[in-house]
Design brief:
The chain is an alpha+beta fold. The chain has helices spanning about 30-35, 75-85, 105-115, 130-150, 165-180, 185-195, 205-220; strands spanning about 5, 10, 15-20, 20-25, 35-45, 50-55, 65.
Length: about 220
């Protein structure tokens, strides 16, 4: 996932009525696997979720699959639908668009149905896109932290890299650090640099710093 969008209810420039909509966008790598064009999840307040794809030559929707699980299904059902789509797009869901609600009607009822998905506690960021970006960053930081805290049972992986590939990776880590400062970026870059025969710098304290970061994160 790379972002979220939502809008409505509103009217376009021609005066035609449009209902509530929302969308989740995916990475370019995901798009390349499914036609190369625009691809993502779309939610319509009349028909629920669908996963759409488009060919490189066609910016309009050339393939849409509907899970048919209701207007507001549990998130785990949509996650399972996306997994099924990635395995076999043609057999996931249906091409027939369902209808669960009449366009432009019963907005109070729709708001009541959406209420359980509001954050239960006050949020650091009220704007949804900023809140998503913060959650997105923290989710990946947690993944990186879990992966880097080595265990004795972890096998060694023999991966041969060209010097240019390693240098490019270090440049990417430096870019990530300049865009979003993180101790994880610095420590990983130091560790990789040390393994490549460069001065160890912070690599000797690598594991200890990770453990300290974990301790601070878990301490109220």
């Amino acid at each position: 996932m790379t972002g979220i969008q939502s809008c409505g209810p509103w009217r376009d420039t021609d005066g035609a009525y449009l209902d509530v909509e929302a969308a989740i966008s995916f990475t370019q790598a995901f798009q390349d696997q499914h036609g190369g064009g625009d691809c993502g999840l779309h939610w319509a307040a009349t028909s629920g979720w669908c996963l759409y794809t488009a060919d490189k030559e066609d910016r309009y929707l050339s393939g849409v699959r509907w899970p048919g699980s209701g207007l507001l299904p549990e998130p785990r059902l949509i996650a399972a639908f996306v997994d099924a789509f990635r395995l076999d797009p043609a057999k996931s869901g249906s091409s027939e668009q369902p209808s669960y609600r009449q366009e432009g009607q019963d907005f109070p009822m729709l708001l009541d149905s959406l209420a359980p998905y509001l954050p239960g506690q006050p949020c650091l960021f009220e704007e949804p896109q900023i809140r998503f970006a913060d959650l997105h960053r923290r989710a990946y930081e947690n993944r990186v932290r879990r992966a880097l805290v080595s265990r004795a049972a972890d096998p060694l992986t023999h991966l041969y890299l060209r010097q240019g590939e390693l240098t490019a990776l270090l440049h990417l880590l430096e870019y990530a650090e300049s865009s979003n400062p993180s101790a994880l970026n610095r420590l990983l870059a130091a560790d990789l640099g040390a393994r490549a025969g460069r001065p160890p710098e912070a690599a000797e304290t690598y594991k200890g710093a990770l453990q300290e970061a974990n301790h601070r994160r878990q301490t109220p």
